[in-house]
Amino acid sequence: MAADHFQIVDNCGGIPIDTAKKYAFAMGKPEGASADRPPAAVGMYGIGMKRAIFKLGTEALVESLNDTGFSVEFTAEWMSTEGWDNLPIRELPDGKLSTKGTSITVMELNEEVKAAFSSGGWIDEFKKVVAQHYSIILSKGFSVFVGKTVEEALPITPEPFLLLQTSEVSGGRIEPYIYKGKMEGVDVEIYAGLYRALLTAEEADREEETRGVTDEAGWTVACNDRVVIWKDKTRLTGWGEANVPNYHGQFIAITGIVLLRSDDPSKLPLTTTKRGIDAASNVYSEAKDLMREATKSLTSFTNKWKKFPEKLETIYQASEYVDLPKLRAIAAATQLTAMRKQPTVSKYEPQYPIPAEEKTHVVVRFEAPKADISFLGETYFGEGGSVKPGDVGREAFDRAIKDARSPKR
Amino acid sequence: MSGASLPYHLRPHKAVDRRIFIDLLSRIERWRPLTDYVYLSMGAYPLEDHKLIHRVLGINRLIAFDMEGAVVARQRFNRPVSSCHCIEKTSGEVVSEIDRILDSCGFAAPDGVIVWLDYTDPKKLGEQIREFESLLDRLSMGDVVRVTVNAHPRELIESPSEKLTTAEEKRAKQFQGLQGRIKEFMPSWATADDMTADNLPRVISESFAAAALRAFPVTSKRTFRPLSIVRYADVSQMLSITGVIADRADEGHMLSQLGMEKWPFSSDTWSIIHKLVVPDLTLRERLFLEREVVATPAEDIIKGLGFDDAGGISVANFIENYRSYYRFYPTLLTAEL
To answer: Does residue A365 form part of some domain?
Structure first.
């Protein structure tokens, strides 16, 4: 990516000359476009490639080698014509291209693109987006290098999807919710849980005021390994729908991923641009029922612990992160139970720890003058050092109850 | 420890850093007159920066703020001119209410504003960087923004009491701590290996760059241009970033008017960070150095001094640095009044 040109080169086998002629560089709806699709892809007719070229600039050159090497030129003149006749495909002599793959070079970049590609900061942000949206493909071993020049191009590290797992405490443990099965010809896998510790009362108060911590909560949805929704916290992924509360700071630890997969990409709930989810589709709305079920359980869990923040530490014993491959291994090894509503899907619903005090204790809240709190704090805990108001209140209560219960003289 | 509890006059690095800021402002004055600007910063109880800004640049429209009522009362006593307003607010409130504050101080529609957010709490880096972004959202062409934040790797661990045996473990934990606060702003190249006193400032500086890019995307007419980035340590390492909001089209012209290429603390990019090394000098040492530092080679200066170690800082190491800032070195004398 540079101020004067953009180039993307792959070694992924190239475009067969027939596909190029029939779909990739044909304009309008291709005729008889159903056969010979690679399995489990997202794109179908090369529409994405053409869209991207038009968005980037006004002149481009595509070269590709699979069976017969060829090149296609997009010129400014052609782009400004009304009809957009099919682009002429020029077959190249044997040996002109050496590796099986495709290269796309765009010259004459549009102004906005020029500004973006001149900025190191923008390129770094772009790399982060690639690391998120292609994290699954990247973690399978696909490499992407991005930079201002070929020499500067560095590999992108995928942004992993991680969930917390702990050892058992008070009859429960933190571990992932799992759903697995098939819906309308689409394989569905859902993993949900916590990715970080819950906020303490103090942190939650601060978050209400200004955001101070990294927020990675929300749902990620991938279709055939391509992420189409990244960490969403809206109705689109079931937040604030049915009995699920709206997302807010207290739920910062909750995250989940939905993996949808089909050899027939037309069955996937994708929008036409392939960049978003078709929320009205049956498959997605059924998957969302499951997502909401998991979200609801996880929000209830955080609500229960909200009242007992000082006991929170105890539930993270031996906590470790599990990544996607490990989650899949866990799903394969776990006894899943069938679901009544969707017999083709089975699930694992973990038992999360419940605060022992839930049934026997209540939370006391009140305000007091700062001066009184610091006076009591110094009386109880000595001068110097800052004592949390909550600790002062607790100490006062403990002393009062001890005093009240002790036999009167 | 951020140095907040250390009396101001015992922080020579901070004093020099502040003087460098004033020097930069006087260069900005070559581009735009600052007299009718508003200067807004925390200032703490002595209002050192307000005094300097008023004295050196002749700016009368001053605002100081602090979240503690007691500090604000003391500021009121120490203010350099009666037109200096001292208000009880948090930095977050100041950022989100900046227009209303300017208005209520009678400074509506100034030529520009100079805002210095001098943060101390390392645990709140996340809030600080988000406040910076949201401040840029509210400012206009010609406004100057300066932020100072803690940049010490040690401060990135929430509970330092945890047992960490190796340096690698410690850095991994520190990296995790930093990610927990500002991951969405961090550069993609940052790793746990960067959690060192030398590299962390660059990671943080580039994170501020990412925040600035959000405030002014590549297609916007304006940009936040960093001018000077400095790190120093009186107690804990601090990082000061100063820049200006400029029209993209006018950036080159502005820089040439400022004469940045000749200024020793200029940062052309977010990665150029100057390290300040300010040893504690006696008055006699200082006078000797001032006479010699511009023209005499370092080895001759050391010969003349007769020692090459000033309280743990090698003279050879700081002399280059000193050449750039000796003009700003504070004279600290005890006096009986």
So the answer is: no
